[in-house]
Amino acid sequence: MTAPASHRRQKLRKNPYEKLHSKLLTFAANAELDPDLTLRNEFLHLENMILRGLYFERNERLKFTDAEKQELAMSASKVRGRSKVKASLLSPAQVVRFSKQALGQKYVSLFPKAKNPVRVKKRSKEEVLLEIIETHPRWTKKQVWEEMEKYFPNIPAFQVYDMLYDVGYWDAKPVVRGIPWKEFLKRFEKVTWAGDFFTTDVWTDHGQWTYYTLFFIHLETQRVFLAGTTPHCTSEWLIQTLKWWSGGFDTPFGPDARFLIRDRDRRYTEEVDWYFMQMGLMPKVISPGAPVMNYHAEQFVRKIKHECLSHCLFLSGQALRKVLDAYVEYYNTQRPNTRFNGGCIIEDSTHWQSEGEIKKVSQLPGLLNYYYRERVGE
Fold first, then answer.
1. Dihedral Cα 179, 183, 186, 191, nearest 10 deg
2. How far is Cα 216 from Cα 222, in angstroms, rounded to an integer?
3. What is the distance between the alpha carbons of residues 290 and 176, in angstroms, rounded to a whole number?
4. Domains along the chain?
5. Where do the DSSP E strands lie in the chain?
6. Count of H helices and E strands in the chain?
7. What is the pLDDT of residues 307-360, one digit of tens each?
8. Where are any strands of DSSP class E within 219-301?
């Protein structure tokens, strides 16, 4: 009995690669692969898996983590020979070194590592400051201080400002109009007066009152006169005083007076300055917060308080006025003045006597005393 036609067709369609496939399986089962090549293939396979995961997951710059470096290092350290050089973009030695550094930084200390300060050549603060000023001549003091902090951390601002003051650096170049102040005082001291107020506490029947005293001092002769003393010191009171001087009476400043140095007291209004100018005095206002510009008046205030007023207790305004008049007379005619080499401002026949009996005159007994020699025959 013959086989059916369908069976004969299946035998004719048999796979022609069946013998080759069987030979390949036999070769793979009996073949021996190079162990170095196998390790290299395993390393490349692991590396490709890590790189593929990093790229497709985050899609950013590829950076290995500590765990990935250690995993690559364990696999790459087994590779030997020439294959070790071509195993990775990073050599196994580098991978091992990076992993050791990461582990060392991670477990050496639990405390935060201090930031390395900027290394600057050892230079003095003055050198750095002068270099900053030359580079940025229009900077403000605050900008210079902020720049100095980059070179000297935690440097205080006042120290930088003092250094800037010593080298003559200001926020902006001052506009100098006219002559300097010191030269003005020296050139026009013969025609210049200075004025100021000082206060004195007086105990009255109505409680403690504060009396204000207005005085003026001549710069060249240092002669002082009192304009008045009042517990209600206002611009109106000052105007009434100036009106009394300009109402037919000779002004105590003299005919040669030209300038009056004053501070920025609120009592000096525009009307007050107008009256001063009517008497021939041009007010010269000092700078804000600079009492040293009116040091002649400030020195007199210190002298009268230290030598007289601080030793007295006043119970009325009249008593205060008597003491003030006595001290001004003592100051102008009897008190030695260093400006005149120990002489007095206003001298008479009792001064500079080397012979005769010593006499004593007391403006205030026990406080203001004047000694002189009486001429023989008087």
1. 10
2. 10
3. 17
4. 24-107 (no CATH), 125-166 (no CATH), 181-346 (3.30.420.10)
5. 192-204, 207-218, 224-230, 259-262, 282-285, 357-364, 368-374
6. 13, 7
7. 999 999 999 999 999 999 999 999 999 898 888 888 888 888 888 877 888 888
8. 224-230, 259-262, 282-285
